[in-house]
Design goal:
Largest sheet: 6 strands, mixed
Structural class: alpha+beta
Number of strands: 6
Strand order of the largest sheet: 4-3-5-2-1-6
Helix content: 25-40%
Number of helices: 6
Shape: globular
CATH class: Alpha Beta
Radius of gyration: 17 Å
Order of helices and strands: HHHEEHEHEEHE
CATH architecture: 2-Layer Sandwich
Low-confidence stretches: none
CATH superfamily: RutC-like
Mean pLDDT: 97
Strand content: 15-25%
Number of domains: 1
CATH topology: 60s Ribosomal Protein L30, Chain: A
Distance between the termini: 20 Å
Length: 217
């Protein structure tokens, strides 16, 4: 673990006791390369920050849409939405990894001290649709598989790594669109790390182009 996690406010008895990158590898999640994922805001192709750091330690991730179909309560359609949500969780892990790493301040995904809030906007024009939370579980359980909770490493009584992936959540259905779901999430890192990132290269990712010289492969 990095010095930031070790110096965080999390009581020692409930800290994760594993490297989250081991779980990422075991689950077959590919985090890609620096060249694929680290850009400045002017060359990103998007007029938004996909990750934003606050000096308090809160880190906000923009939503990402996925899936091919609108949702209804058919079990196969719900499964499609869950798999899409899981893939988005993988993509957000990748985005957050590079946002934390690219400035060389010493932080990485092991510095997520807990997860604050997730929101899942589930696309469905079916007025009787009742499976929004079930679809969003594809995202939440994947996130908890990495950071601790009720995911793949939960043995029926506990996740021995802890519960820092567990989050508050809203899962809302009823939106229109040519996709299945758009989740977003807020996590917390040690304020010390967040402040170092902001002082070194600003608070947005993709980064402010004036800080390109501060980036490190």
């Amino acid at each position: 673990m990095s010095k930031f996690y070790e110096n965080s406010i999390i009581p020692k008895e409930i800290r994760r006791d594993y490297d989250v990158y081991e779980r990422i590898s075991e689950l077959g999640i590919n985090l890609g390369t620096y060249g694929e994922h680290v850009k400045d805001i002017t060359s990103s192709g998007l007029p938004i920050a996909t990750v934003l750091f606050h000096e308090s330690g809160l880190v906000y991730l923009s939503g990402e849409g996925g899936g091919d179909y609108q949702m209804n309560d058919d079990p196969e359609r719900v499964k499609h939405g869950q798999l899409a949500a899981q893939k988005i969780a993988d993509n957000m892990l990748t985005r957050l990894h590079w946002a934390l790493k690219c400035g060389g301040e010493g932080g990485d995904l092991n510095d997520i001290i807990y997860t604050v809030k997730a929101l899942g906007m589930v696309v469905s024009t079916d007025v009787d649709f009742d499976s929004g939370p079930a679809v969003m579980n594809g995202f939440s359980l994947r996130w908890q598989s990495i950071f601790g909770g009720l995911g793949d490493y939960f043995d029926g009584s506990e996740d021995k790594g802890g519960y820092s992936g567990v989050h508050t959540r809203s899962a809302i259905g009823g939106f229109t669109g040519r996709f299945s779901i758009e989740p977003e999430i807020i996590v917390a890192i040690p304020p010390e790390l967040s402040k170092e990132i902001i002082m070194n290269r600003g608070w947005i990712f993709p980064v402010d182009p004036r800080f390109k010289s501060k980036l490190k492969k």
